[in-house]
Amino acid sequence: MSRSATRMAQIRPFYVMALLARAKQLEAEGRSIIHMEVGEPDFDSPAPVVKAGQKALAEGLTHYTPAMGIPELREAIAGHYRRRYDVSVDPARVIVTPGSSGALQLAMGVMINPGDQVMMADPSYPCNRNFVSLVGGEVCLIPVGHESNYQLTAAAVEQHWNDDMRAVMVASPSNPTGTLVEKEELRRIHQVVRANGGTLIVDEIYQGLIYDEAGYTALELADDLIVINSFSKYFGMTGWRLGWMVAPEPLVDGIDKLAQNIFLSPPTPAQYAALEAFSEETVAILEERRLAFQARRDYLYPALSELGFNIRSTPKGAFYLYADCRGLTDDSYQFALDLLEQEGVAITPGRDFGDNHPEVHLRFAYTADIAVLREGVERIARFIAKRA
Ligand SMILES: Cc1ncc(COP(=O)(O)O)c(C=O)c1O
């Protein structure tokens, strides 16, 4: 008889996928659907990247590479940190992975023993919890609110530390809230984690997509923390499945061993394509896109607020708005389902991001053109008016 492992009970479905399936079904039936649920850029991969990928395929670069990635790309990533953040990173500490999802698996696999705990904010990106469960670890979810920009603070980390705590994970900018951890607060969090003998993991996969300030990398603070990053979001390469991590030197050999066993190598054509991701030509395209995202945020944030969605902390990055919707509903899941059925607008219910009042939260992704967002807002306004 086929039966699932007990750990599967802890892995929750990604509810938005059911919503997406229904949205696709409605589209197939001819309905017009506005997608504000999708967590990936609507822009295609930049042309220079695509061209480099095609060239790699044409040249037969389709075999395995070293498990930690081709040296040229590891060096290019180190160069990116040097140019953009003026921080020197040894390429030997850069590990190229199949998406940042691959990096997260490696990070948990190399550090977490059964029973170890990993602290993270609630709400937060749900898959991170499952990477912990997969290796027998336990997640310690800390409810966070607008007072702390929906992020962990050093005080919260100190307060919730216990003997089983092994690591603390923060994401800046965050999914689902688009909020940042200020550099000085991250420095304090790192100090608390280090003083307690743990490891700080910083998910920087939305790095580059920030709108009101210059941004920084946690690598400016120390080299005994893990940084996770990706070619998916800022670089617009979700389907190429390529990410990276920068790990403390003592963990690198273990990560290499694990990567050899789990992945053999990151996707080869994608690695050659990614060499173009840092070129001047590509960066010019990406910066234009960043400004387009910023303009969308600047439209959507006030437009949703006017409809009664309470976005309680200014979203400064990624492409998400996380709204408190208790003025409109106390069942955000049903609200999202009804909105899809009645007006053809897809959004993500709070229950995908944790247990911290998910029933009164919704995530809106601005991964569509402003004209499309405008139409979405009109439909949402009509939907709310009908319910009144
Ligand atoms: C916070 C966060 N981390 C990691 C990922 C994984 O992305 P990928 O595996 O495409 O790099 C996502 C994807 O949405 C995310 O939002």
Features:
Aspartate Aminotransferase, domain 2; alpha/beta; 41% helix; 388 residues; Aspartate Aminotransferase, domain 1; single chain; binds pyridoxal-5'-phosphate; three-stranded antiparallel β-sheet; seven-stranded mixed β-sheet; 2 domains
What does it look like?
This protein is α/β, with parallel strands linked by helices and 388 residues long. Helices cover 41% and strands 14% of the residues. The protein contains twelve helices and twelve strands. The chain has helices at 15-28, 47-58, 71-85, 99-111, 127-134, 154-160, 183-195, 249-262, 268-274, 280-306, 332-343, 370-387; strands at residues 34-35, 94-97, 117-122, 138-143, 165-171, 199-203, 226-230, 243-246, 320-324, 345-346, 348-349, 361-365. The mean pLDDT is 96. The protein binds pyridoxal-5'-phosphate. Residues 39, 99-101, 125, 171, 175, 203, 205, 230, 232, 238, 243 line the site of pyridoxal-5'-phosphate. Pyridoxal-5'-phosphate binds at residues 39, 99-101, 125, 171, 175, 203, 205, 230, 232, 238, 243.
What is this entry, summarized?
With 388 residues, the chain is an alpha/beta fold. The chain is 41% helix and 14% strand. The chain has a 7-stranded mixed β-sheet with strand order 2-8-7-6-5-3-4, with helices on both faces.
